[in-house]
Amino acid sequence: MFPPGCQVPPASQALPAVGQGGRLAAIDRLRGALVVLVVLHHAVLAYCTFGHVDRADYALSTAPIVDAQRWRAFDALVLLDDGFFMPLLFLLSGLFVRGGLGRKGPGAYLRGRMRRLVLPFAVAVLTLIPFAYYPSSLQAGGRAGFPAFWIRTVTVGPWPSGPPWFLGVLLAFDVAATLVFVLIARGAPGGVDPCRFPGLDRIDRKKGEARILSSPRGRGGAAPLAGGGGSPRIDPGRDRREGKGVFPEEPPSAPAPHPRSGCASACFAPGKGSKALSPPAGRGENPRLFLPRTVLSAPARGFFLLVALSGLLYLPLLLAVGPGHWVGLGPFAIQASRVGLYAGYFATGVALGWGGRPSVLHFGQALVVRWRLWALLALPAGLMLLAAGAIGAAGRLPAGPALVLEGIARTVFCAAAAFALPALFLRFGGRPSRAWDSLSANSFAIYLLHYPVVTWLQFGLLARPLGAPLKGALVSALAVAASWAGAAALRRVPLIRKGL
Asked: Are 106 and 195 in contact (CB under 8 A)?
């Protein structure tokens, strides 16, 4: 079923569409689609059959709002969504970490990530999240007005994080990736100071020369320095004018950028083309690549590696703490059993993007060749997860083996979806589309804004005898439309646009 290797077609046949700044428009649109899935997930969670309200502590309810009208089909939708969308968001977030570090240097990169993630996180958990959970408190029997509820939330608690938990965890992963980057760079022969030379040169003072590790022209070479100091003149603009891409491995027949496309650095942050700082490699090695070429050219190997890695990182914690336990401090929280899973997917994204855009393009081309295979693989994997969940819910196995079965099924489905969806979007998602471009541009703001819209719509429909399917459809459609419109409106303000 899985060939040991796959032939990558000519770039003119299989190269995915490239957007502004040299980023893949299809990946940008995949991120937007995942954010819509997040909204749909939260919109139907109130109507699942396993829902319950904890009247002693509203934050321990299965969802902020739990409706008496339920539909079993939403159980399956929630289980499948929950099986892959957050790990895949972390993987996409890791793709362009390496480019940002190489282009800006560790210090500037972390300052940018702090501005990009900490400020929206703080605003969301201080305003949007208390407002989103206020109807949950009312449903659980609370009688306090919103000002009193807000004061209690931020002082005594509970203080749920809601969707912004992703931003806090992503920042922690960015910090860890930066530390690893610095350690690798400074552990190289001769030493590297990536803060002083962010992505252009490495100085060997004894020999009086600069070793170009990732210049716009490409591979390592030595340029003599007058008097043993200074650095060689490098003109990235000249290379662009001459038609040489920022990454020299880019096939010359790459399609022209679509004027409305753009992808986000570190999943949400808009970025430009990057020049990556690579640690020196041994003779005959490509200093740009972290993953072996056999993995980049044959995604089947990468799939099995991802399944094995995520299984090792996920299953022990799942058995140790259970599936539903969250840990954190105030609004900084994460699902304990998935710490390793999320870290593994983020690290996978960083490793895949370690070689810059060429390695991502190369892997993307190989995915596109077998896009039907990956799509077909995800279907039985999803059915296996649904079956494992049904076996566990029915009590046909003891708790431990049932948890292991569901954990294995989730691991396989998550990896299959993480390959199938990029393959489909790379194959079909690069065509010009104003709607997709708008969704991609506004996806970060939609992610932040949608939660209070969802909970208040669900709360308003509690007493309406419309049936769970219609309620779920109404909340989904209205939440997507309202949060999308609100995001577009907010991003018209120049100061807000910089943060969103």
From this structure: yes
The DSSP call for residue 461 is T
Q: Which spans in 357-398 are helix H?
A: 357-369, 371-394
Average of per-residue pLDDT across 299-310:
92
What CA–CA distance (Å, rounded) separates 25 from 190?
39
Which has the closest alpha carbon to 444: 311, 269, 302?
269
277 domain residue, yes or no = no
Assigned domain for 245 exists: no
Identify the domain containing residue 18 by its residue range. 11-185+290-499
Asked if omega into 64 is within 30° of 0 (cis), the reply is no
Q: Rounded CA gap, 195 and 174, in Å?
A: 16
In the chain, the number of structural domains is 1
- Cβ pair 414, 310 in contact under 8 A: yes
Record the tokens describing residue 155, joined without a space.
């002082």
Tell me the per-residue pLDDT of 328-365, one tens digit each, with 9 for 90 and over.
888 999 999 999 999 999 999 999 888 877 888 888 88
* 193 is a domain residue: no
Within-domain flag for 69: yes
Q: Model's pTM, two decimal places?
A: 0.78
The helix (H) or strand (E) run that includes residue 169 is: helix 165-186
**Nearest to 425, CA basis, from 355, 376, 362, 375:** 375
